[in-house]
Design brief:
alpha+beta, 6-stranded mixed beta barrel, 25 helices, about 50% helix
Length: about 850
């Protein structure tokens, strides 16, 4: 009974375009969510897979003891690839020369990710990673692959013999690229590779030997997660399941920050799309008041009316979701293709496929938006009185403001939680959005009411524009608030993008140190500096390195040690919490760069008492304050130093960083080695050979691959955020069009009256342009204010970036807002100013 009139009414409204904006709003919301979630998911997976090259696998299970073969082999049930290697430090010999090497005994198709490159011929003067061939698997039994440093220090060539333990190996290759090479200057022995089946012949494994068993896995993310859950109950506390995101490295930090920022930008885009749907739902309800009143006079029951309009909304929502899914899929494919085209080297060979998660999230978004944002407008629509047919100014009962806010906030929160799956982030984003919405509405209404006292001539377009704004103050304030929200979200994404990229680039500017030099003896410092000067290579400050263990804080001994630093099992259970390991300590006269003092003061050079500066996070974790005394064991010596400053350390920087820095009075007389860092262009690589030949005890760490990967991540995220910006601009234009359409009927009536009274087209065009200029300026100004508030909250509590004000933003946002709104608004209202009065009256009727 109700279906036929519902279908007929739907066709009429579609022809008149009354549902077009609502359809576009839902489609845009679904498009935004599907394209952003799909693109973000695939980009993140691609970044992780490509970055997993630095682990040589997607996951690594490490242990100090062998793991049951049943656990390892059960990975086959989850379609995972596996390999493993046993690692240990051992002395290697070539004639009378010897060297401490880091040995990898490989079994299986190592590496599972990344490239292991082996050169079978002597190296030439060219970057190492451009030489050699890609190899998968271990060397043949009896053979060994060695790092270039091993050849230089032991004066070996391809085909020479190398003794590892009791076994003798033939040098059959030189490693020119190792995917999971260590970037730690404190663990920098050169690496050699042998076949795992050769380990027994070396007789190196003895009771008490320090061995590390590493099991590598690769496969689909869901399969890896399922496998880990199956073995997790069987793992011991000293057995670690690692991935690239869990690594404490600049790369892992950059991946986490990139993923977090993409997620945050997407959440802001969702809020904007939801705003458009909310406004269009309210406008649709307002436009249907007369139709519902007429249906009631014709005897249509409330239940039939509810079915008719529920059918309309369900149909439009379904069409919007379908259109949004199609458009979203196309957009994310185009965006990913753009990344693959402009940066093919930064993506894995097999691009990640799109999962069902973006599809489910997008459909949920469309359904929630259509249902929740239409709830209060539709309930209000069904309460329209029958007498409205006669008296059109009669309105249905308004819902309480708090109820509207509760429904809107609940819907937004549901969307944020479904998308982010992060309760804390969703709550923070919702609170920021709510606070900003309240500020926007309050400021917009206040500014419009302040304009009431302004006086202009009767024929002034300014008078007409401001009178129009004041006449529709509630609607105009909501219009300004919505437009300001759109501008604010664009500004937030733009500014955060710029500040994030700037922060990253500040960490790795041009000329960033790409080599670290360790194990420098005191008598080598001066000649090494002279050699560097010969090649015009600038080095960083030299840091003395001294190994030590903090055994007491004030009079409280650290758990596990007595006051003399000896192991005490009883104190393991009752002692104060400490660092838990031996530390690399240093001393300096001057404060290192980018180590700002947070509390206390840096010591003077002539200070005679032992003092120490501590990193702020460790100080907070161990409850160490200024004036506390740290007792540190260094060999047979015990140093007692007072904490006189607490420093902030940027662990993402490519510089030597330390938990504890002592003054000269504390450690100046201690024997030490030194570390340094320097930037070496590709054409100056011969320096490395000369350096290692002249000083074979040096340790050299190359981090140029890591720096290159960090720069690739910056480029990819910048491109991704440009794409998100494009979507947000589209959503902003739609929000503006929706707001203009919402006031279209009232504006139409006003123009009919003014044209009938003799107002000219030019006057009306100027008045409309000025009205939109004022709206845009107010929206831009309030957007600048709320952007500063939102940026402070987001940067402080969500992504943990330092906040700074943006003075130029206020003028820029006001000017751009006024021009942006005026351009779109006057274009949308162009037909109203060009039609003659009789045509306007006919259209109105």
């Amino acid at each position: 009974m109700w279906f036929k009139p519902a279908k007929s009414l739907l066709k009429q409204q579609l022809k008149r375009g009354e549902l077009t904006i609502f359809l576009l709003a839902i489609a845009l919301a679904v498009t935004s969510v599907f394209s952003l979630s799909g693109f973000g998911e695939r980009l993140n997976q691609a970044l992780v897979v490509k970055s997993s090259n630095f682990l040589a696998a997607d996951r690594v299970l490490s242990s100090a003891h062998p793991i049951d073969d049943k656990l390892i082999n059960s990975s086959e049930q989850f379609s995972l690839n596996k390999a493993n290697y046993l690692s240990f430090n051992s002395m290697v010999f070539a004639g009378d020369e010897m060297l401490l090497a880091y040995t990898k005994a490989v079994s299986g198709p190592y590496p599972l990710r990344g490239d292991l490159k082996i050169s079978r011929t002597p190296l030439i003067n060219a970057p190492l990673d451009t030489q050699g061939e890609v190899i998968v698997g271990p060397p043949q039994q009896g053979n060994v692959w060695v790092a270039p440093e091993v050849l230089i220090r032991l004066q070996l060539s391809i085909g020479d013999k190398l003794d590892v333990g009791d076994a003798t190996f033939t040098v059959s290759g030189i490693t020119t690229e190792v995917p999971d090479a260590s970037f730690s200057i404190f663990n920098s022995s050169p690496t050699i590779f042998i076949n795992q089946q050769d380990v027994p012949a070396t007789n190196i494994i003895q009771p008490g030997s320090r061995l590390y068993y590493n099991y590598l896995f690769s496969g689909e993310e869901s399969d890896l997660a399922a496998y880990y859950q199956s073995i997790k109950p069987s793992l011991k506390t000293n057995q670690n399941w690692e991935d690239i995101k869990g690594e404490k490295s600049p790369l892992a930090n950059s991946l986490a920050r990139a993923n977090q920022f993409l997620l945050l930008a997407s959440l802001l885009g969702i809020i904007l799309a939801a705003t458009a749907i909310s406004v269009t739902a309210a406008r649709f309800s307002q436009n249907q008041l007369d139709a519902v009143a007429l249906l009631k006079t014709l005897g249509t029951s409330d239940s039939v009316i509810r079915k008719i309009f529920t059918f309309q909304l369900a149909t439009i929502a379904t069409l919007g979701v379908i259109l949004g899914l199609i458009a979203g899929y196309i957009l994310q494919e185009l965006a990913f293709a753009a990344v693959a085209y402009y940066m093919p080297q930064s993506l894995p060979e097999q691009l990640p496929a799109l999962s069902f998660k973006p599809l489910l999230i997008s459909v949920s978004t469309g359904v929630i938006c259509a249902a929740m944002f239409s709830l209060t407008p539709m309930l209000r629509l069904f309460k329209v009185p029958v007498m409205r047919v006669i008296k059109r100014d009669m309105q249905p009962t308004q819902f309480k403001l708090w109820l509207n806010g509760l429904v809107f906030g609940g819907a937004i929160f549901s969307l944020l939680l479904i998308y982010s799956q992060d309760l804390t982030l969703s709550l923070i984003t919702l609170c920021v959005a709510g606070l900003v919405a309240a500020i926007l509405s309050f400021i917009a209404m206040g500014l419009i009411r302040l304009s009431r006292g302004k006086k202009f001539s009767a024929a002034s377009p300014w008078q007409l524009a401001i009178a129009s704004l004041y006449q529709r103050a509630p609607q105009a304030s909501m219009q300004i608030a919505s437009i300001a929200t759109a501008i604010m979200l664009m500004l937030i994404i733009l500014l955060l993008r710029n500040e994030l990229v700037d922060e990253w680039q500040d960490q790795i500017p041009q000329g960033t140190a790409n080599h670290f030099l360790g194990n420098v003896m005191p008598d080598q410092v001066e000649p090494i500096n002279e050699l560097m000067a010969k090649y015009d290579v600038e080095t960083s400050d030299l840091y003395p390195i001294i190994r030590g263990r903090v055994v007491a804080i004030n009079e409280d001994t650290i758990g596990g040690y007595d006051s003399e630093g000896n192991v005490d099992n009883e104190r393991k259970r009752s002692g104060r919490r400490g660092f838990g390991r031996e530390l690399s300590l240093t001393w300096r006269d001057t404060l290192p760069k980018q180590n700002p003092i947070q509390q206390g003061e840096w010591w003077s050079i002539d200070q005679l008492e032992p003092e120490v500066s501590i990193e702020e996070e460790v100080a907070a974790r161990l409850d160490i304050k200024l004036g506390d005394v740290l007792v540190t064991n260094i060999g047979e010596e015990q140093i007692t130093a007072t904490v006189t400053s607490i420093r902030k350390v940027d662990w993402r920087s490519m510089r030597p960083n330390f938990f504890l820095i002592f003054n000269r009075a504390a450690l100046g007389d201690m024997p030490s080695t030194y570390i340094s860092s320097f930037h070496l262009p590709t054409e100056q690589h011969p320096l490395l050979n000369e350096l290692l030949t002249e000083y074979p005890t040096l340790s050299l760490i190359k981090v140029d691959r890591l720096i290159k990967k960090l720069r690739e991540i910056i480029e990819q995220v910048s491109l991704a955020l440009s794409y998100i910006m494009l979507l947000v601009v589209c959503a902003s234009i739609l929000v503006l069009l929706v707001q203009i359409q919402a006031s279209y009927q009232q504006r139409h009536q006003d123009l009919v009256i003014l044209r009938t009274l003799g107002a000219g087209k030019q006057l009306l065009k100027q008045a409309i342009a000025i009205e939109f200029l004022i709206c845009g300026a107010l929206a831009g100004f309030t957007a600048a204010l709320t952007t500063e508030v939102a940026l402070f909250l987001i940067q402080t509590f969500v992504i943990e970036m330092p906040w700074q004000p943006h003075p130029s933003l206020w003028l820029l946002a006001t000017v751009i807002g006024s021009l942006f709104v005026a351009a779109i608004g006057t274009r949308a209202c162009k037909d109203l100013t060009h039609l003659p009065p009789n045509e306007l009256i006919r259209n109105l009727s």
